[in-house]
What we know:
Elements: H1 2-5, H2 9-37, H3 42-48, H4 51-63, H5 67-71, H6 78-87, H7 92-129
Helix pairs in contact: 2-6, 2-7
Amino acid sequence: MDRIAEQPFAIAFGTLFVIVMLRANATYWLGRGALYGGTLSEKLAHRLEGPTMQRAQRFSARFGVIAVPLSFLTIGIQTAINFSAGFTRMPLRRYLPAVAVGCVLWALLYSTVGMVGWGAITTLWDRITT
């Protein structure tokens, strides 16, 4: 974090954007792969491919896209939202724009407020330990 905090805003923002974009998309693809590549019990696999889950997948793909960018403004649910977007097979034509907006929001938040907070914490730590 110190190396990123020492960079000009544009570089810090770009670096954070790339990091979070890679992480969010990796989580999406893990969710997508969990449906097919995991070792699921026959009962669980039947439930995940049943009509109720198919309806939920269609609903999420149609209306749940707003949850993706909003999750980047929260703490603790980003991973779950991105995983479930992959798991429910949210179409990439909806997911990629939504995740891009979320990543821009996250990178903007962390490259401004987050870097100021990180600087304050490290300064305080230096004063306490010396």
